[in-house]
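Input (structure):
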């Protein structure tokens, strides 16, 4: 996701639904980008902060216990998502209103209804899920104009 959006040290990456913080931490560690993780699970926010400190990037990242549909994303130059379609649909007008031209949005597995992606990439690895189902992950990229 970070490679697809061409993250660099000038970016501010917002991961909405940041889980354990791995995307924001990787953006900071590998690319020198600043980042904000937004998560509603207090334990995951605390875990993310701990991992950021262990990785030496606490000065570049912030993890917030907030509702991703209510957070101000105007500072973001990159938004990463691994959320369900209903969430992406609710988020779309917020992104349209708050993101500046040139910002990039990348979603894992679920696109944003009504938006035509700039690029779609199917990942080469096939995941075998419990019960034997196979899944090929897809990334969707949009550039805000």
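Output (sequence):
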């Amino acid at each position: 996701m970070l490679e697809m959006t061409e993250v660099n040290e000038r970016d501010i990456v917002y991961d909405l639904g940041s889980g354990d913080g791995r995307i924001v931490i990787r953006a900071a560690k590998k690319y020198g980008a600043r980042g904000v993780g937004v998560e509603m699970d207090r334990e995951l926010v605390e875990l993310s902060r701990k991992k950021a400190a262990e990785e030496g990037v606490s000065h570049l990242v912030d993890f917030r216990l907030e509702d991703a549909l209510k957070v101000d994303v105007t500072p973001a130059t990159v938004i990463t998502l691994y959320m369900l379609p209903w969430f992406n649909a609710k988020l779309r007008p917020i992104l349209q209103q708050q993101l500046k031209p040139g910002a990039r949005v990348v979603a894992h597995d679920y696109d944003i209804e009504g938006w035509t992606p700039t690029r779609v990439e199917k990942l080469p690895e096939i995941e075998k899920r419990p019960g034997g189902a196979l899944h090929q992950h897809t990334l969707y990229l949009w550039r805000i104009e």
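Notes: Strands lie at 12-16, 34-39, 61-65, 78-81, 104-108, 119-128, 134-143. The radius of gyration is 15 Å.
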